[in-house]
Amino acid sequence: MVRLNEIRAGERSVDLPAKADAELYFIGRIRTPWTDRLTCPRQGRGDGPTCRIELSPPWEQGLDGISQFSRLEVLYWLHESRRDLVLQSPRNDGQARGVFSLRTPVRPNPIGTSIVELVRIERATLFVRGLDCLDGTPLIDIKPDRTLFTPLAPAQSGDFQVGDAG
Ligand code: SAM
């Protein structure tokens, strides 16, 4: 069962620091069919519904060149999550595990990531498959899937070269 706001047996909350160390710019919103956490999928699927990623001005010009990538990594802010549970019990069975061994949305910095398939682009809107977040979730970043991306800048010492391994 997906958590709403309870603390389960075995879980532990901490006091959050009084002040944050950094700020984010939300660069857009994600539009999905899911309006509550109970029905939202736990992980996106390639055969899931087509969702929209709507970039806000002035960030839409950052989409230049993106159409050459069939898969993207999307980062989003799971804005309805609590942030203070260091031990969590996903099965609600009294057995708790550390937050960093889980992909729970409840985290000190509730950042979600998905690898999505790019279906099409219309102006400042990307149509994608593979998301798992609520309608209206704030968008933090979009990057090419790292397995498709070759750095455009010249190689540097320390970069991995083909043939280095083994
Ligand atoms: N794929 C991402 C990841 O692995 O980083 C997120 C996985 S997280 C398990 C997905 C769950 O987060 C959804 O099933 C839903 O319960 C919850 N969720 C989705 N959007 C959210 C939001 N905007 N605020 C809080 N919780 C959200």
Structural class: mainly beta
Q: Estimate percent helicity.
A: under 10%
Q: Uncertain runs with pLDDT below 50, 5 residues or more?
A: none
What share of the residues does DSSP label as strand, in percent?
25-35%
- Give a count of the beta strands, DSSP E runs of length 2 or more: 9
- In quaternary terms, these chains amount to single chain
Q: How would you describe this protein?
A:
The protein has 166 residues and is mostly beta strands. It has a domain of 116 residues: YaeB-like (Elongation Factor Tu (Ef-tu), domain 3), CATH 2.40.30. Helices cover 0% and strands 30% of the residues. The chain contains no helices and 9 strands. It has a 6-stranded antiparallel beta barrel. Strands 1-5-6 form a 3-stranded antiparallel β-sheet, with no helix packed on it. Strand 7 and strand 8 form a beta hairpin. The N and C termini lie far apart (45 Å). The model has no long low-confidence stretch (mean pLDDT 94). The structure holds S-adenosylmethionine (SAM). The site of S-adenosylmethionine has 20 residues, from strand 7. S-adenosylmethionine (SAM) binds next to strand 7.
Describe the protein's topology.
Layout: E1 12-13, E2 28-31, E3 50-55, E4 71-77, E5 85-88, E6 97-98, E7 111-122, E8 125-129, E9 137-144
Antiparallel strand pairs: 1-5, 2-3, 2-9, 3-8, 4-7, 4-9, 5-6, 7-8
Bound molecules: S-adenosylmethionine.
S-adenosylmethionine binds at residues 2, 37, 40-43, 78-81, 103-105, 112-114, 132-134, 137.
